[in-house]
Amino acid sequence: MFDMNATLKALAAKRPVFHSEADFQHALAWEIHQHRSTCRVRLEAPLPVGDKRGHIDIWMPDDTAFCAVELKYKTRRVRVEVNGETFDLLDQSAQDFGRYDFLKDLERLERIVSANDDIVGYAVFLTNDSAYWTPPTRTGTIDAGLRIHDGRRIEGRLGWRRPLPKWLRERRADIVVNGVYNLSWQDYAEPSRARYGRFRYLIVEVVRQ
To answer: Mean pLDDT over residues 157-161, rounded?
Structure first.
């Protein structure tokens, strides 16, 4: 059986930091291939849900089961050197959008898993931004319902605080989650002692209800 947590731990020993989400996606796919050489691994594979077209970040068709993985890699500004390679990470901020997009991935994975037999989904979030994993100090913020901090229980209808501001645009719709998920962040790597030099990850496993 595939173990996403063990795979990320193994990857962290080789690649503690990534230039971009695409770099993370490629490295994780290669790590999966090395651990399961008989498993086909595809990037950005087309996998529609109902009548909607879409792609999965990593798709692993196997003889007995299938695995769909959606990734998020969000960074704060930090400069890291690893084995002579320099990583100049950008300050992406917009944590409210980052949370929304991750939960949207979770919603989509649930639909994929429920519509197909023998599929396991994984929503994976890797970041050096502690705002994602730290419990909020303020309540009543516009994105309070979308928080994904350590220890939070995710279930039901999730969305922005009303009234909705106009700048939300395409992210205005509520997210509906059918399962119940207790979020647990894990340490990934600390390639630098500088601020934002520590990376943590979150895995949400999605199985058929």
So the answer is: 94
Q: Which residues of 63-98 are buried (b: 16+ CB within 10 A; e: fewer)?
A: eeebbbbbbbbbbbebebeeeeeebebeebeebbeb
Domain that residue 19 falls in:
4-206
Cα separation, 106 vs 207, whole angstroms: 11
From CA 26, how far away is CA 28, in angstroms rounded? Answer: 6
Q: Residue 81 forms beta bridges with which residues?
A: 86
Domain count for the chain: 1
Give the DSSP per-residue string, 64-110.
Answer: S-EEEEEEEEE--SEEEEETTEEEEE-----HHHHHHHHHHHHHHHH
Give CA–CA dist 105/109, Å, rounded.
6
pTM over 0.85: yes
Quick one: 51 exposed, middle or buried, by C-beta within 10 A (0-12, 13-18, 19+)?
A: exposed
Could you give the percent of the chain with pLDDT greater than 90? Answer: 69
Torsion angle, alpha carbons of 130, 188, 60, 42, to 10: 80
Cα of first residue to Cα of last residue in the chain, in angstroms, is 19
Tell me the C-alpha distance between 35 and 14, whole Å. Answer: 14
Please report, for residues 17, 30, 36, 97, the alpha-carbon distance to residue 83 in angstroms, rounded to integers and kept in the order given: 11, 19, 27, 33
**In which element (H, E) is residue 46 found?**
strand 42-46
**Other C-beta atoms lying within 10 Å of the C-beta of residue 144:** 13
